[in-house]
Each structure stands twice: as C-alpha cells, then as structure tokens.
C-alpha cells in the first residue's frame, strides 16, 4: 500500500468510521443483538402488565405530517383514556377532534394552556412526540413508575420504520442533569404522575418546545430534582432525520447562560458549558513521582505554559527518587513561585502519597495529577474548576488521550472486568461516543485520578484515598464512590483534554507480586461496592460489560 498513499488514507478513514478498530460490532451484529434484546424486554413487559388506564400527550411542534401515524398507532392500545395534542395554533387542529374515531378522547391544547391551566388533574401521563408510537405492552413499564416514589420519569426509545422494523436503541443511563444540559438526551417518553408537576417555571411554553427543554427548566428551578428512569424501550420514533444542530431551544439555552458561558460543539449537537465562579479558588495540583525527570518536565511545563487558569500551585511529591538528574531538576523546580517539592520517604503507596500531600495543600480545590499527563486544551483547568465549584458536584475528571489521540479515559463504568473500566476506551478523540456521551460533559459513578479535581473539604470529609486497602489500584474508584455518599455527582468534563501516557512511570502489573496485589484490591472493591458493580446507575443494564464500547449486551 506504500505505492498508493491515497489507498492507505482511504482504508484508515473507513476503518475508523466502521468502528472495528475500537471494538464496535458491525451493523449486522448490532441488529442481531438488538433483535435478541427486544425479545428479552418483551418477556419482562409481559410479566408486569396491568389494567391501569393512562393518558398520552403528543407534542406536535414542526412534525404535524407525522401526527396521523402516531394517532393511528395509539388507537391500538385500549388502556389509553385521553390523548392531548400539544400544538402552537389550536385552530389548525379542529378537524382532528371533530373526526376522532380512534377509541380514546382527543383534546387539543396549546403548550402554555396545557402546562398552566390545571383545573382538571390528569394522572399517569406519558408525553411523546408526533411520529412516535408505543410498545403494545407499555403498561408494564408504566406500572413500574406507578409503584415508585417518582413524580417524573423517562423510558428508553428506538427508531422504527413504517414496516415495523426497529433499530438504533437509545439505552439511557439513569437521570443525569449534566448530560441533559450538554446534550438534551431525554427527548421522548417522559412520564408524569400528574400534570400538576408542570408549573409556570418549568412548562411546555415555546414553539420549539421539547421534553428536554421542560426538564432543563425543571432542573434550573430545583437542582435537587429526582427523576426516575425505567430501562425499557417502550417508545418507537419514526426514522426521520433531525434538522436542528442544537439539543435545546434558544430560549432554554439563554436560561442556562445565566449560570454558564455556553458555546456550541463544532461537530455534534452538544453544548459546552463553562460554569461561572464567584471567585477564582486556589487549586493545589498534586503530582507524585519517583525520578522520571523527562515525564515530570513535560507535565509541569505543559501546565505552566499552556494553562489559562492561573490561580494554582503545584505540589511535586518526590517518592524516594535516586536519579541524580531528576533530583537536580526537582531542586530547580522548588525555586519556582508556583511549585513546592515535598519529600515522601516511604515505599510507594499512591493513596498514602496523595493523602500526605493534601495535608500540605493550601488550595480549597485539590487536583490529583499523574506525572505522565500533558496539557492539550489551554482552558482545561477553567472548565474543571467551573464544574467542581458547583455545590452538587464532587469529583471532576478529564478527557485523557493516548499519545496517538485515542481515548484513554472518558469516565469510569462500574462492572467492566468485574470491577471497573474506562468508557469509550480506544475511541478516536473526535468521536461523539454512544449517545454523544464522549463529546458531551456528563456524570459517571467514578473518574480516574490521573487528572481529578475535588473540593478539599469533600476530600477530607470521606477520609481521602484508602491507603490501607487500596495502595495502588481502584483507590480513585473507591474514593469517587465515597464522594457520591455526600450527595454529589462525579463529572467527566469533556472540554478538558490532556494526554496521558498511561503507566509509563510506574509500569504495568505484570509481576506475580503486582498481580497478587491487584487481585486483592479488586476483591476488596467487589466486596465493598457490589451494588455499583452489579448495576451502575451511570450505565444501562442492557449494555455490555465485556468491552468498553457501549455495545448491546449479549444474551444466551
């Protein structure tokens, strides 16, 4: 192929597009996996069927041409009592109510009237879009919400064609306001226990209204709002291309802009949020090392020369270095006004080293940084500080890349390999990821400590890293899960991009001693956090745990 470079380029581009280079199954394989999943979920829905009636609201918006399809499909479900059409101009839809013979009552409402005029209470309400249809056994899924304590919830969805062929399931994670703000990920299949959940602060009120807009409004009104999720595909949307490049309406983006500077992603329907802070808190960046002069130099110089956010200190923790050149370099670094060099003269224990350094940190924000990390994006620290200073946010992790540009870390998923693994590992840097979760900032149960920010108060509140049981592996995962206990979320910040030359300085766990230690630490994690390993709320139970690629789970 050296004789035809254009052919090499063509092959490389299409290999990346296919997903084969980072483990995504072929379309044929995905179709087979989904066919099996459809049967598995149908069996579950059959087992939870009920006779409880329910109501449906259909948001028409710009999709009036798809409305007839939806109304015909809804007529096949006997339990539907009333269907509400949420429209811009009521007069245009009078013929629908006059000629209704579908077996349910049909009422046309404006978005504002439907949201604010609540003289009549409507219970067990499912909101979808024109062009959507419902699973024949949807009542089984609704029953799960009725039995829960939730007032608002959402389901998973997929695409369907006119022949009834289903594909491209959206297998969502549990409620995540960060993913909603950045990608508007919930756009159909919203359930309300009662229409009185709607209010003038969070209503369907604009011509471009959407379920995502409503939920953003609700979150901005109360950032502790708890929204349920049932991981069953019960809404099927006609396979129509979307024209909008924005995940939310301009009106709602303007509301977000009160709190954050919002810019559009150049390639995907994703918003980048730079959260504003009242002040610039001091960040203490802790970098443990033993020798490794060149790695440390590349790391620290990239921070000093590229980082826009300027209110930070660097704590370089020297763990028994014995290389002359490294020691001389560290002595020079100690003269820099932003750098302190600390001596930790005990055996390597990653958790203990960082706990020691936190005790010497002056900042109200702690940054755990590996010595083999290099800054790419100058605003990395600005974005991460903006996230970590939010009250409800705990740990903040970065998008970390291998030297060749592939993804090394973009959030941690519990359950991979029986313990934990990195989401979207080996994906290309500019890939959107599954349901935009690589391109969009969103929360995970954990993030890696190779580049992690956390409030010092939170670090101390959970006792720091576990230096007794997790000296090397999984200490960051355990730490993040402890932080969740403070009623925080751990956020993957997609805007913060850095290189991570993984394990260059410490090496891999490839000796018998290291493997025994790793297995012991894995067993500790499994015994301490079985609920997260068995069912990570930031993942979906119908996605695979065999690979880090968000493929559909294999059954049988």
From TrEMBL:
> Domain Glycosyltransferase 2-like spans what residues?
284-412
Spell out the Pfam families in the cross-references.
Glycos_transf_2 (PF00535)
Q: Does the keyword Lipid biosynthesis apply?
A: no
Q: Which InterPro entries match?
A: Glyco_trans_2-like (IPR001173), Nucleotide-diphossugar_trans (IPR029044)
Q: Which Gene Ontology MF annotations are present?
A: transferase activity
Q: Which keywords has UniProt assigned to this entry?
A: Transferase
Please tell me whether the keyword Transferase is annotated for this protein: yes
Q: Which PANTHER family match?
A: RHAMNOSYLTRANSFERASE WBBL
Designated name of the protein: Glycosyl transferase family protein
């Amino acid at each position: 192929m050296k004789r035809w470079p254009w052919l090499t380029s063509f092959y490389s581009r299409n290999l990346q597009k296919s997903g084969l280079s980072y483990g995504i199954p072929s379309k044929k394989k995905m179709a087979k996996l989904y066919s099996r999943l459809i049967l598995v979920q149908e069996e579950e829905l059959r087992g939870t069927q009920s006779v409880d009636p329910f109501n449906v609201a259909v948001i028409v918006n710009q999709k009036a041409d798809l409305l007839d399809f939806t109304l015909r499909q809804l007529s096949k479900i006997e339990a539907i009592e009333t269907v509400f059409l949420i429209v811009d101009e009521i007069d245009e839809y009078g013929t629908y109510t006059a000629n209704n013979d579908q077996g349910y009552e049909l009422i046309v409402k404006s978005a504002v009237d439907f949201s604010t005029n609540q003289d009549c209470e409507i219970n067990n309400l499912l909101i979808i879009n024109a062009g959507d249809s419902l699973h024949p056994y949807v009542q089984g899924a609704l029953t799960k919400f009725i039995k829960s304590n939730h007032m608002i919830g959402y389901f998973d969805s997929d695409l369907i064609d006119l022949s009834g062929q289903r594909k491209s399931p959206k297998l969502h994670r549990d409620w995540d306001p960060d993913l909603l703000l950045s990608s508007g990920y919930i756009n159909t299949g919203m359930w309300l226990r009662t229409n009185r959940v709607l209010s003038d602060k969070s209503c369907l009120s604009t011509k471009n209204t959407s379920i995502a807009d409503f939920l953003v409004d609700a979150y901005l009104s109360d950032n502790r709002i708890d929204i349920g999720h049932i991981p069953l595909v019960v809404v099927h949307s006609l396979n129509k291309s979307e024209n909008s490049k924005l995940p939310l309406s301009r009106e709602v983006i303007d509301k977000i802009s009160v709190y954050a500077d919002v810019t559009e992603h150049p390639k995907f329907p994703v918003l980048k949020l730079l959260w504003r802070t009242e002040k610039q808190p001091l960040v203490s960046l802790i970098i443990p090392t033993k020798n490794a002069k060149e790695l440390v130099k590349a790391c620290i110089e990239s921070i000093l020369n590229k980082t826009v956010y300027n209110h930070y200190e660097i704590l370089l923790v020297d763990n028994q270095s014995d290389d002359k050149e490294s020691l001389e370099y560290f002595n020079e670094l100690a003269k820099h006004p932003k750098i302190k060099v600390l001596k930790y003269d005990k055996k390597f224990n990653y958790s203990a080293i960082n706990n020691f350094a936190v005790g010497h940190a002056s900042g109200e924000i702690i940054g755990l940084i590996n010595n083999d990390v290099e800054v790419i994006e100058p605003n990395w620290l600005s974005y991460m500080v903006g996230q970590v200073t939010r009250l409800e946010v705990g740990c903040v992790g970065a998008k970390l890349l291998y030297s060749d540009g592939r993804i090394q870390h973009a959030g941690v998923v519990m359950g991979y390999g029986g313990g934990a693994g990195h989401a979207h590992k080996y994906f290309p840097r500019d890939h959107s990821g599954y349901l935009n979760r690589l391109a969009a900032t969103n929360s995970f149960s954990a993030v890696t400590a190779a580049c992690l920010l956390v409030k010092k108060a939170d670090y101390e509140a959970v006792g720091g890293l576990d230096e007794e049981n997790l000296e090397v592996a999984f200490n960051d995962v355990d730490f993040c899960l402890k932080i969740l206990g403070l009623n925080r979320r751990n956020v993957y910040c997609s805007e913060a991009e850095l290189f991570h030359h993984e394990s260059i300085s410490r090496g891999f766990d490839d000796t018998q001693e290291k493997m025994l230690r790793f297995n012991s630490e894995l067993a500790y994690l499994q015994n301490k956090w079985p609920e997260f390993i068995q069912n990570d709320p930031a993942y979906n139970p119908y996605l695979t745990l065999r690979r880090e690629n968000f493929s559909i789970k294999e059954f049988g």
